[in-house]
What we know:
About 50% of the residues lie in helices and about 10% in strands. It is of the alpha/beta class. It folds into two domains: about 10-160, P-loop containing nucleotide triphosphate hydrolases (Rossmann fold); about 165-225. It has a five-stranded parallel beta sheet with strand order 2-3-4-1-5. Helix 1 (about 10-20) packs across helix 2 (about 40-50) and helix 8 (about 165-175) crosses helix 10. Magnesium ion (MG) binds near residues 42 and 43.
Amino acid sequence: MRQVIAQTKNLHNLAEVGQALSTRTPDLPGIGLIWGPAGHGKTTAAAWFRDRTDAVYVRAQALWTPSGMLSAICRELDIMPAARCSLMLDTIVERLATTQRLLIVDEADYLLRSGRLLDTLRDLHDVSSAPVIVIGMADFRRRVASREQFAGRIAQTVEFRAADLDDVRVTAEACCEVELADDLVERITRETQGSMRRVKVALSVIESWADRRGCKRVSLAEWGDQPIDGTVGAGRKPTGGGR
Ligand SMILES: Nc1ncnc2c1ncn2[C@@H]1O[C@H](COP(=O)(O)OP(=O)(O)O)[C@@H](O)[C@H]1O
Ligand SMILES: [Mg+2]
């Protein structure tokens, strides 16, 4: 498998939101909210966007306190974390106000465990006016809606949807070193229910199978009724229609 990032619709939507927030006029609210089920590619897209821009990426953690959150942001900004939160906040705000770098907080569901974390992030956004993207799970949007002050600053939202046929085809073409026939791509889309994690597993299982047989292209008939999830029977001789 090639270690590349496929250009899916979700990836483009995230990039569009990042661009829109970064180019807004600073008097407008500048928080973006991304949500969607695990495995749909949110972290991958955020890391891809960070690598192409000067965005700052941190991943929230279960044990974060305001101090832990600010220290993590300091480290990404090459600022020495300080003992006092107020000092760290001032330094971060000053840096972000000058650079207007986009701050991405992944696994932001953890921020909802404490009002102080969300309030501190809001302070950071309000005072610096730097754009912020928070990324959470499927019910994140609904849960954030009840935090009125934070929710009021959300200017852009993206739901990470299940990969569709085109997304799976684009991913197969980018990542898989063997060619897959359309009917097999259709089966992968259906059985993985659009989870990018499962799509990648399926592509890898099929690619290994094809490699062992020296095939350059695999169709649904050649694959037969073998499972594509890599857990049972992968690589086994197909019972019908296969090689
Ligand atoms: N655009 C993409 N191109 C290639 N692989 C991807 C892409 N998006 C997701 N993946 C694969 O799917 C896996 C799960 O994605 P991840 O970003 O961790 O999802 P989430 O953050 O939504 O739980 C990743 O480890 C990666 O292998
Ligand atoms: Mg993730």
